[in-house]
Amino acid sequence: MQTPDGAQSKEQRVFVATTRGLMLTEDGRQAYGDARSMAGSYMIYDFSVPPGHKASEIEWPKEGKTPDPATEFLVTKAQAADKAGFLRAVRGDGRRGRDVSLFIHGYNTSMPEAVFRAAQIATDANAGAASVLFAWPSSAKVTAYVADRDAADFSRPALANLIADLEQASGNGRIFVIGHSMGGRLTMESLLQLRLQGRNDILNRVEVVLADPDIDVDLFWQQMAQIGKLPVPITVMTATDDKALLVSQTLAGGRTRIGAINVADPAVKARAEAYGVRLVDVSEMETDMMAHGRLMQVAALYDHTPASRPGEGLRRAGAFMIGSFGQGIIEVGDSFAR
């Protein structure tokens, strides 16, 4: 799309599968809220991304004003789809397979926030993958933590089925699964369901990133014991300064969250290697006030890691840190990245 000043905006498509149900808004419109749908539904959104877009940011349309494609993210088209049409669109021409990047949002997230965030992540990653969002029925309220956790658990079968569908649709492409915050809990429960169903064919193909995951640390290691090692180690982004996870820990009676674990602890590193998990401390990276939004930068970094080198870069089990001042990825106990 060309903006009024002649600059060219970028187009970005986001495929959405959701367990949210449609609700009536105060002005009588239908919109996806926090109602829960057993059947689920599918949408396809096309975005215009402004030419001056800043990485990791969403340039939101200003409420009450005419949207400006020169400076703001805009939805240029939104269409409902059935499951078959949705998967055909994800597949594309299907001749050589297609990489798929599946994003699962976290706690306290509305439908618009989730869709716009998925568009921003896909734009910044610039990996050419089909960008898919799984939107579960978060209440989008700070006070609704327990309701959100229940809504995430409610959505586990639907996410497991979606991952299976995307594995088929991708052909021989790669499948990235990125779960943020409470979406990480949902991701792990869905992977566990696939393992219990004997779907090793799917688990052997997924590459999983858990960003700031809101999961009890003991529960996480129990989940890993049942899921087992994957060909590409699960990457867990951690940050000891994450204030959102500190709140979650308080609500959980002081139980540590895996997303806030201390990767410098030798016992933690040994457990990560034993279970085939890659813990990456991202505390040195710039973030938001709650220190809970480093996902955007690391997701882009992960997507560009060569698939042909599964034992290197962001694909090796152990405990690591992303250093400041351009130091890159540093293994705990080493002075440089391997």
UniProtKB/TrEMBL annotation:
Alphabetical UniProt keywords: Hydrolase
Pfam families, alphabetized: DUF900
Key word Aminoacyl-tRNA synthetase present: no
Protein name: Alpha/beta fold hydrolase
InterPro entries: AB_hydrolase_fold, DUF900_hydrolase, UCP033909
Tagged with keyword Hydrolase: yes
GO molecular function, one term: hydrolase activity
Taxonomy, superkingdom: Bacteria
SUPFAM superfamilies reported for this sequence: alpha/beta-Hydrolases
Origin species: Paracoccus cavernae
